[in-house]
Automatic annotation (TrEMBL):
Domain named VWFC: residues: 31-89
Classification via SUPFAM superfamilies: FnI-like domain (SSF57603)
Organism annotation: Goodea atripinnis
Listed name of the protein: VWFC domain-containing protein
Domain of life of the native organism: Eukaryota
Keywords per UniProt: Secreted, Signal
Main location as per UniProt: secreted
Localization, UniProt: Secreted
Amino acid sequence: AGNVVCSKEKCPPVQCSKPVIDPHLCCPVCKACVLEGVEYENGSSWQPEGPCSSCTCVNGKTLCTHMQCPPTECLHPSKITGSCCKICDSCTYNQRVYSNGQRFTTPDQPCHICTCLVSV
């Protein structure tokens, strides 16, 4: 009937320790991200599950990606510390494994020198 009714907005509890008061918003907002009880600053990145995952805090929202490793085309792939995917850095010859660049001879042909060359 032409009347205006106003009420005070109830703000939800904030999940971070340093909420930001925006003059254009009623309720305080978190620019930091809280994940499993740990607070991350806006713009920071971390790897919650090791090198195969990456998370970034963007304006209070946690954005995560998981790396999919391509299939390896060798019999004995190895994993380098700190990397996500296994790589082919060895050769298999006569049921023996040789590292990339390793030179070797075979018992039946001692005059033939072989070298393990891993294609990149």
